[in-house]
Design a protein that fits this description.
The protein is α+β, with helices and mostly antiparallel strands and about 525 residues long. It has 19 helices and 10 strands. The radius of gyration is 25 Å and the shape is globular. It starts with 11 loop residues before the first helix and ends in a 12-residue tail after the last helix.
Amino acid sequence: MTPSFPSWILTTEGAIGVALFVFVFYKAVAPSRNKFPPGPRPLPLIGNVLQIPTDNQEQVFADWGAQYGDIVHIKIFGQPLVILNSLKASRDLLDKRSSIYSDRPRFVLLSELMGWETASTHLRYGPRFRKHRRFINQTFNPRALSAFRPLQEKEVLVLLEGMLQNPDAFVDHFRRYAAATILKITYGHDIISVDDLFVRLAERAGTLTTEASSAAANMVDFFPLMKYIPTWAPFSDFKVKALETRKAVEAMMEIPFEQVKVDMRSGTAVPSYTSTLLGSQRDSNGCISAEDEEDIKGSAGTLLAAAEDTTIASMHTFMLAMVLYPHEFKKAQQEIDKVIGRNRLPNLDDRPSLPYLECVLKEVLRWNPMVPLGMPHRLMEDDFYRDFYLPSGTTVLANIYAILRNCNEPDSFRPERYIDEDGLPDPQGVIFGFGRRICPGKDFADASYWAIASSMIAAFDICKAVDHEGNDVNGKYDFNHGFVRHPKPFKCIIKPRSSNLPALISQARAELNLYPSSTVPEH
């Protein structure tokens, strides 16, 4: 008997569909002649999608590393993804072979629906990426950082004053510091509170971007045709959210940038990253190309978006660690008292003299790295590492969380490990990424982190909040497991160590007049 086929198979569209299915199925199940790194067994067609949790991925990937080795290979709808769970593998590939590991995966939803093609975090590796990096390095190179020190020290004093007035809002004070420093550097803009328009724009864009990165949205990266689904169709919520996010991101980039241009035309612009670049990129006729202007706007917006959330997360984590580990907090306090005394606040000149404090701050970053999986890299050509084949187009993640847990008693908060144990990865050399994609603002971020933490330890006593029976009001402590790991909200007690603190702040503010007032280095 002749078998009967569904009539749609006899159409051209049907034949193409069958051929596509057979090809994808074959690619998913056929053995490769090359040896991939080990990993959990994938299912046909969908790969390892069902084995990847939506929460706490860094821990699952670390567990896979313990089972399969420090290089883990998985597939998502036929697309290869490699997870690096050791510092050696990350350095060997992302640093030493950075010329072929410096691309980013193409985030279809972000780049095409949200208009992020010019944001340097998401730029493909090439001339425009290098141009953005050159712009940013002119402002954030190590030689130029001294110009930012007066701004950082001033904003730390504003933060301490805020803590005195309203200690329960400590996260808002960190948020104001992060916004005040990056907005001043990037746009020359001064803020008074977290209710500032530019701050609200940045926070809305960041919140919506996180929410837009849903499972459905991520599917677009594997099935780009989904971007053509109309907004009225079923399962189109992800696209509606993406379009809303695009408007927020455009507002975050456009409004501060246009304000700088208005101020430059009126002659009232404050020297800043944006105004300096807009001036330096003009030709002999005073004109600037549309591409240069777009690149300046995009890189400035990226600085704003990238700096704020990670600064808040690092300080929020620091506060949680000081609450949970009072012995280490008191020991750091005693070191500051011994070296500096209690008649002034610490500053960055004191940093080499406070080795235990340095260990505490490293341990905070190890204990909870703010961006546990870093930003993904994309392999630009076929590569071989050890005995493994890594095909072009592979997405590569460095599991920073797993790398920093490669130590004795990783669940313990023990700053002394950086004195007692040799060869430990330095968190400050890991959390900012690898290779040509390393964060260009890492030295500025590190200086801010040290300045805030040292001043908080010197100025305040920090402890758990308890009820009238002495019970911890928080019950338990945990982290939100997203792209950036924040502690979940908690309460604590923050009290000034001395009634003389306002005088110390005033003294430090007066001494700032010794520094030059410029906040942006000349190029």
